[in-house]
Design goal:
Elements (H helix, E strand, L loop, with lengths): L1 H19 L22 H7 L1 H13 L9 H14 L6 H10 L4 H14 L2 H18 L18 H15 L4 H12 L10 H14 L6 H10 L4 H15 L1 H19 L1
Length: 269
């Protein structure tokens, strides 16, 4: 149902225009490119309140976690951006959005991540990310013409896989909430997931990271399997948990680990 995505895209654009007047150049000290963690609070600011936290950020997080070879810097940025949006944590968004662009995420891809998470973490969370994204886009001179439109071509649909998914959802939940079942098919899997601005592997990575970050463990098996079908390797999925422990917290990751373990075991068997 392309009309629904068009409305969502228009809503995101309208929100961006509404906050445009609020943008203040230099909100990140004039250097939105420079740090993986500094946003409204610089490392010096953090050190003035918690020297130990500042040392952890500079040393362990930036100097060790982000350098681990099991996951690319681009994938780490995609996962971090997804976690921040999913958890509605805007303070670190300007720096992390800028860092994602430095790591090779395209502005069109960042725009599409925000759209995708409007459906997987709620419209309000997506709208909350608009000011930070616009700030970075303005600072980088990103023209709206390079961002994904509401309409346009869609990727080919895997008819057999989609038919099986839709039949299962209909059988399990058709009598519970037929509207949810219908929109899941029409909006999510026959439109959103077929938008070409974000690769299927990236879209799956964003989804799984958001599910872990928000503790939605019941939804992880389907989407982790889909992510691995879309090219995410088991070592990368494992490292995703390690990375998210620092951005979503240990409890969220430990809640997800039994589910990951079960998916890994069933795929290996």
């Amino acid at each position: 149902m392309k009309h629904v995505l068009a409305v969502a895209a228009a809503s995101l654009a309208a929100s961006g225009n509404a906050v445009m007047a609020q943008q203040v150049e230099g909100a990140t000290g004039g250097n939105v490119r420079g740090s993986a963690t500094a946003a409204s609070a610089s490392i010096a600011d953090v050190a003035s309140v918690s020297p130990a936290l500042a040392a952890f950020i500079h040393g362990r997080l930036q100097g060790e976690v982000w350098q681990r070879p099991q996951m690319s810097a681009r994938d780490r940025s995609v996962a971090t951006v997804a976690a921040l949006i999913a958890r509605n944590q805007p303070a670190d968004m300007p720096a992390q959005f800028a860092l994602a662009l430095d790591h090779g995420v395209k502005p069109a891809e960042l725009s599409e991540i925000i759209l995708h998470l409007a459906f997987y973490t709620g419209l309000g969370n997506a709208l909350a990310a608009i000011p930070a994204a616009r700030q970075v886009f303005v600072a980088r001179g990103v023209d709206v013409a390079v961002l994904p439109p509401a309409g346009g071509d869609r990727l080919p649909l895997n008819d057999a896989a989609e038919a099986a998914r839709a039949a299962g959802v209909q059988q399990n939940f058709g009598a519970v909430a037929l509207g949810v079942v219908q929109y899941t098919t029409d909006v999510l899997f026959r439109d959103l997931w077929l938008r070409p601005a974000l690769a299927q592997r990236d879209r799956s990575l964003v989804t799984v990271a958001a599910l872990v970050a928000t503790g939605q463990v019941a939804q992880i098996p389907y989407h982790l399997n889909r992510a691995m079908d879309n090219g995410l390797t088991q070592p990368e999925a494992s490292e995703l948990l390690t990375h998210l422990a620092f951005y979503a917290g240990w409890p969220s990751v430990f809640s997800a680990m039994p589910v990951f373990k079960d998916v890994f075991a069933k795929r290996a068997g």
